[in-house]
Structures are given as C-alpha cells and as structure tokens.
Amino acid sequence: MFELITQLLLLTAIFFIVRYVLQNFIDRRYLTWLGGIVLVLLLVLAFLQPTNRTVGILWSFIAFFLRPLGLSLVLLGAAMRKGLKSVDGGQVLAAFLILLIFSLPLTAYLLTAQTEQRTVLEAVQRQEASNPQEGQAIVVLGDGALPSDPSSRIRTQISNTTGGLSVNLQSRLLYAAQLYGTRVARGNTPLVIVSSIDGNNEAVNSDQSIRALLTANGVPNDRIQIDRNGVDPRSSAEAARNILTTTAGNGNCRLFAVCDNNASPVPAPATAGRVPIVLVAPTLSIRRTASTFTRLNFSVIPRPTDFYVFQIQRGLQFAAVTDIIPSAEALVITTRVVDEYLATIYYFLRGWLADPLTV
Questions:
Q1: What are the domain boundaries of the chain?
Q2: What pTM does this model have?
Q3: Strands of the 275-282 sheet, one edge to the other
Q4: CATH topology of domain 118-305
C-alpha cells in the first residue's frame, strides 16, 4: 500500500511539473490539442513499449532538461527571453549555482559514495575472494551508453571502432571470466550470459569479439550465451530468464514464477526456488539492476564494476583544495548519478523493482 501511494504521489508531481512548464515556458498559441494528444500518446508508449527507439529518443530529450547542464541552459534561456538588456538576475544566479555545485569533485564524490555504498560493496568483494557463492549463470550487462556518451566511442587497443569492445564492457567480461574460473575450481560450470547493451548499432560489441575475449580467458565457447534483445536491465533480465528456461528445457516458464505477460503474481522475496545468478554490472546502477532481476524471481549475487575512486587518501588539506575546483569530469559523473536517480524513479513507477525502498 505504501508503494502504491508513493507511486500515485510521484505521478501527480510529474503531472503538475509538466503542466507548470507548459504554462510558463511555452507560448499558449503552440499548445494545440494535437500537441497534447501526441504528448499523451508518447507517455503511454513509454510505459507500454519502453524499449521502443522513439521512446528512447524522447526520453533523452526530456531528461536533458532535468540534468544539471540542461537545467542551467533552460534557466539562462528563460532569463534572456526578454532580451539581453532585461536579464533576470535570479535565474542567472540559479543557473550558475547549479553548474558550480554539480561541477565540484566534492559533490561528485558525495553522490557516488552514497549511490555505490562502497563500504558494503567492498565487503561483498572480500566475501567473493574468500568464499565465492554459486549460481546457475553469470550475467554481464553491457554498456547501455548512447552514442552521445564519449565512453561509448572508446575502444580497446585489441579491437576497433566498428566491431570492437568498449573499455567498460571489456573490463566486465574479464571480471566475469575471473568469476567463472573461481567457480570452475569449486566444481561449478555456470553459463556466462552477456547482455550486450549498447547505444550503437549491432556491429559494435560483436558476438565474435565477446566470445574471443571470454574464451581467451578460460570460458568455454559452449558456456557463453549472448543476449541481443536486452536494451535495459529489465529486458536483460527477461532475456536471461528466457535463456535459462530454454537451457533447462522448460519453455513454459515453469522454472520461474513470472512469464513475459506477467500473468502470474510475483512471489515474495522469501519465496523458495529462486534461480541464483551472479550479476556483473556498473556500480552506479547495481542496486536498481539487482532489484530488477530479483523482481523476476532471480536470487542475485551482485558483483559491481566501474567504481569511481577519488584521490582523498593523501591528506585532508590536499583533498579539500582539489575537491572545490570545478571540473568537466565531475559534471559528467554527477550527471550520470542524476540519470540513475531518474531511471530508478521510472522503474519504481513501472513496478519493476522487488524492494523499491532499499534501492
């Protein structure tokens, strides 16, 4: 009941925010009935088909105005709407403060430290080294980066820009191979499922490059499954479920309590029979991703990667001086944290999280 009330409150808040923006920043002459109908249809489409490319483009456009840089530009544009001689000083100040605060390395450190829960995750890493838990599969999430994200264009030296692996995905694959080796030593041979999420076309992060890297690091080719249907954690979880049910010779989802049409109720977290998997995903999104997989009746063993580490070990004075100097790198990191918060809210509204209050 509490989750339902929270969802309704969030939807109500979104409605009033959208209405405020439409009434105060857009000329009423352009707010035709046709525009309103199109907006409603797009919002409905976002909920019914979240993997639709049009929805992704629309979300990128809307999310831009919710990010620090986009919000600052909106405020600056609104401040100058009456001309340079009548600039609204309050809005200019607000834009300046947003850019300043979100460009501070100190802000980036505080936000990522809270999101990553580094102390807890380091304890998980120590447990993995001393006593690795078993799982039926090791699921590796790919990039999920849009072409506008510079990280999606950075390739490793052993690959190329048309069929290679991004540096982020390569690090996760190497970690997955290491996890596979520790489990083989204990007599377990899990599947390695690579959900090759990528904002570019299918030529990037090709099957051959992924298989070549994994097999070169000790994973047999017959234990590798590549998912091309996953475009976000939810669809990746569904694809992993389908792969495991097919592998188990059980195509009617009896292995799981939930099928693709969501006809069956989702069991409580304490329900027995969950499918154990090891989940390798970026640290910023590991909690949302793990909760998404848990919602689909997986028992998730999280193994995060891509930590953001700040040089604060060299003394308090050194850290205090450098952490108050704005930088573009800090703005990129804080923007990614904001994006993760927005994605978590969307997943919560869709009911895709197993325990939203812990994410």
A1: 2-112+327-358, 118-305
A2: 0.71
A3: 224-227, 191-195, 137-141, 275-282, 298-305
A4: Rossmann fold (3.40.50)
